[in-house]
Amino acid sequence: MALISEELNKAFNAQIKEELDSGYLYLGMSIWLKEHNFENLANWYWIQAKEEFEHAEKFWKYIIETGGTVELLELKKPKSDWKSVEEILKAGLAHEQYITNKITELWKLAEKLKELQPRSLLQWFINEQIEEEANATALIEIHVAYKNDMLFDRHVHREDD
Ligand code: OFO
């Protein structure tokens, strides 16, 4: 018998899609930024996109380890008609706030189902979302301080973990 309930298995499959959608969204942002010569920001969002794949991996690994079934769902076509760096930065924060809500819902669902096993996994994501929102907020604040997209881009720096 699987350790993971059918209901949580389904919700985790949905979250795999959310993480991959996040990666796809950030990939699209990275491409737009690269096309507009914001090299460092493009790199920042490319690293972010790859990180989202790792987030998806945490969920599918958990499902397999607990005897559930991984189902990959159809991905959403990401927005690509960005108008400005500012729009991308704000959309990045709004998206992370959306994902934080999704993780909170998963925590509540596991509580309701009295499934304790995914607690450490979900706690990791709760902590990660604090960091994700803080990073997205910092980018917005620093962008405002620079008042110039190209100068701001020169300041942005991120390396693969
Ligand atoms: Fe998966 O943290 Fe961003 O979305």
Explain what this protein looks like in three dimensions:
By secondary structure, this protein is an all-alpha fold. The termini are far apart. It is 75% helix and 0% strand. It has a single domain, classed as Up-down Bundle (Ferritin), CATH 1.20.1260. Helix 1 (6-35) packs antiparallel against helix 2 (39-65). The protein has five helices and no strands. Bound molecules: hydroxy diiron-OXO moiety. Hydroxy diiron-OXO moiety binds at residues 19, 22, 52, 55, 96, 99, 132.
Low-confidence stretches: none
Largest sheet data: none
The CA-CA distance between the termini, in Å, is 37 Å
What is the CATH H-level superfamily?
A: Ferritin, core subunit, four-helix bundle
CATH topology tier name: Ferritin
Helix % is over 70%
Task: Name the overall outline.
Answer: elongated
Q: Over all CA atoms, what is the radius of gyration? A: 17 Å
Number of strands: 0
Bound molecules: hydroxy diiron-OXO moiety
Oligomeric state of the chains present here: single chain
